[in-house]
Amino acid sequence: MASDNGLTLTVVGCGTMGIAILGGIMDSLNTSSQSSEQEQSLPPRLPNRFNATCRSDRSASRIKNELGKYNANLNVIQSDNVRAMKEADVVLLACKPFYVKDVLQAEGVREALEGKLLISILAGVPEAQLEDLLYPGLSHEQVREKITIVRTMPNTASKVRESMTVINQSTPPLPQDTKNLVHWMMSRIGKVVEIEPKNMDACTALCGSGPAFAALIMEALADGGVAMGIPRAEANLMAAQVMRGTTGLVQDGEHPAILREKVSTPGGCTIGGLLALEDGAVRSHVSRAVREATVVASLLGSGAKNVNGTRH
Ligand SMILES: NC(=O)c1ccc[n+]([C@@H]2O[C@H](COP(=O)([O-])OP(=O)(O)OC[C@H]3O[C@@H](n4cnc5c(N)ncnc54)[C@H](OP(=O)(O)O)[C@@H]3O)[C@@H](O)[C@H]2O)c1
Ligand SMILES: *[C@@H]1O[C@H](CO)[C@@H](O)[C@H](O)[C@H]1NC(C)=O
Ligand SMILES: *[C@@H]1O[C@H](CO)[C@@H](O)[C@H](O)[C@H]1NC(C)=O
Ligand SMILES: *[C@@H]1O[C@H](CO)[C@@H](O)[C@H](O)[C@H]1NC(C)=O
Fold first, then answer.
1. Are residues 81 and 138 in the same domain?
2. Which of 1, 262, 263, 265 has its CA 20 to 30 A from that of 95?
3. Which of residues 168, 195, 222 is at a domain's end?
């Protein structure tokens, strides 16, 4: 670890997601010096040295190609996760869930990670499973004395830095500086919300599956345009921009119900279309899609739940 005030961040399994997150961080570090950082909760120490691990030459050159432009202090390390973790202050676990056992149970990993912050983005791998791989048999409290693990869940829009990322709230709570660091890092690729552990499955459904649901609605909007004669390419472009514009208004503070009412001129076409949507029970079907996806997420997770959402 170096003498300056910066942190060394190691991304283990640096593929699509790892590159997206590192790119966001490096980009932010490059630009923040001139543009005044408006964030109140900037962590006191930010990462400024980066190690990215992978195995294949293909992955290594991809990392260099995509991140080289940021001109940051970045090293690509092939087939030596342990060395890269040893040198790190913070480790971002970003390999495929399938490989996590190999990665965490390799010789020397436990020692390399001791006393450090481990941030996981692995889909469907609960914190308890990571604890078990590193310290089989130890309780959560005992593990927390040796390592800080934070489970985060970014979504597919990370690639365009529009992720809706949820962070599982830790018990006991993380120190404020650690919390700020995790929030800062993950907000380089989009928005971040910290949630209570019991809402993890619902957030998997809303944030993880949500882009697929929104894509279906977007397709339907475009299809309607096509049905009435708009060429496909234009209809797709229009549907996407309409959803983006609606998003912008809501994120600017407009309530969706007020927005809808403002557009509904008496006797006009919008209210006519809305009536057709309500006849089709779109509202309850979309809500129930999230509910259904939550149930499936809970069945895929470790502690099986019934459809009522309560553990048994
Ligand atoms: N994609 C999403 O939208 C999304 C959303 C939420 C969460 N996630 C989670 O993010 C994680 C990464 O997804 P991804 O799409 O970025 O996958 P990816 O592109 O396949 O990246 C995984 C990387 O891990 C490397 N790797 C595999 N085994 C390794 C090992 N033993 N040591 C070091 N590196 C190793 C691979 O390098 P080689 O090719 O050299 O083996 C590859 O570059 C997954 O756990 C996924 O669940 C993804
Ligand atoms: C990790 O990165 C730092 C700074 O970029 C570098 O000095 C160090 O040698 C790297 N570690 C490995 C194992 O390559
Ligand atoms: C979230 O964190 C809590 C407390 O640290 C832990 O008990 C729980 O298993 C975590 N949930 C997931 C899904 O990782
Ligand atoms: C849901 O809850 C009701 C009432 O508590 C119970 O009768 C029912 O069996 C539950 N459904 C499942 C699938 O567990």
1. yes
2. 1
3. 195
